[in-house]
Amino acid sequence: MTVAEHHLDNTSHLARRVTDRVSAMIAYWDSDLICRFANSSYLEWFGKTSDEMIDKITLPELLGPLYDKNLPYITAVLAGSPQTFERDIPLPDGTIRHSLANYFPDIVEGETRGFFVHVADISVQKQVEYRLMQSTELIYAQNEQLVNFANIVTHNLRSYSGNLASLLDFFQLAGDQEEKDEIFKYLQGLSKAFSDTVANLTELVAVPNLGKRNLEQVDLLKTVENAISSIAMQIRSCKAQVSVAVDPDLRLVTNPAYFESIVLNLLTNALKYRRADRLPLIEISAFAEQDEVYLSVKDNGLGMDLDRDGHRLFRMNNTFHGNSDAKGLGLFITKTQIESLGGRIHVESRVNDGSTFSIVFPSKPTDL
């Protein structure tokens, strides 16, 4: 062996030792897609020995189903264009590794003789990226819940303050003690409902996942009756008739603050959007079927053109009847609360013929 040959052999041996110490996959494929070199990491990733790989195996044989996915990059690198791409590589033991692959053309005298492969394992980076994405999604969801919570507080307390003001006005205008005593009973009922709402909202603040925690068994009939009682004077002043068809044994596992807010908002909306030429008639019903609970609130009020406005119905800051006290938040909050509890809402309505809001809840949420 000449000195030059000995030097070349030492250089090749050193190159092999160096590449075998590298954690990345390094290989060389000729223009016929036959493997001419593969370092130990490359062999380990694919569960092959050097004798099985070098000068024997073809790239389609090695990659199997992955070959068709990589073919555009292989074609491009053999045409002389370097390629970089990410790929999930299934290993012989069934696990998946995330990789960043680089193909570099081996061009000699203008001809591509093959290409060099460098594939780095980026599984750890992908896991960190995934955890960051989850954290970002969690923060976004919590921010949405906080905004929703703030809207609940604003909307519900506004409703109570309005009813309190009305009751105080009625109290001042009362003609005798008997009428004052009756109004005072309404004030007591309103005070209790307000205290219950504040207590429920306070409990919500104490948990990190608003609306999805603090689930408990709720008595539907009692919740509906409490909502009616809290706006009793408003119902009376409108001369509205409210009928309730709810099984006294019907229960729902849900967040009581959210559910109370949903019922109260649908009830006050039915009064707010009543027709001036007829007495308001509101029908509240609920029943259970299989693993779901159905609740509906039907009125004979103004109704709306769903073909024209249905797509805007649950959006924030959208109003439809020109009421001076309408803020365009109520139905947006209601739909958000319903969906956060795993439920869904459907509306049927016709102009001047009233509306029916139908809600479906899972009776025992399992994924909240």
Instruction: Profile the largest sheet.
Output: 5 strands, antiparallel
> What's the total helix number?
12
Q: On the 0-100 scale, what is the average pLDDT? A: 81
What oligomeric state do the depicted chains represent?
A: single chain
Cα Rg? 35 Å
Q: Unreliable runs, pLDDT <50, ≥5 residues?
A: 3-8, 206-211, 320-328
User: Between the first and last Cα atoms, what is the distance in angstroms?
Assistant: 75 Å
In percent, how helical is the residue content?
40-55%
Order of helices and strands: HEEHHHHEEEHHEHHEEHEEHHEE
Structural category is alpha+beta
β-strand percent reads 15-25%
Strand order of the largest sheet: 2-1-5-4-3
Q: Assign an overall shape.
A: rod-shaped
The total count of strands amounts to 12
Note down, in words, how this protein is organized.
The chain has 368 residues and is an alpha+beta fold. Helix content is 48%, strand content 24%. It contains twelve helices and twelve strands. The protein has helices at residues 3-21, 40-46, 50-53, 59-63, 66-78, 123-173, 177-205, 220-230, 232-237, 256-272, 306-309, 330-340; strands at residues 25-30, 35-38, 83-90, 96-108, 111-121, 216-219, 241-246, 251-254, 281-289, 292-299, 344-349, 355-362. The chain has a five-stranded antiparallel sheet with strand order 2-1-5-4-3, with helices on both faces. A hairpin with a 5-residue loop joins strand 11 and strand 12 (355-362). Helix 10 (256-272) runs antiparallel to helix 12 (330-340). The longest helix is centred in the middle third of the chain and has 51 residues, at 123-173. The N and C termini lie far apart (75 Å).
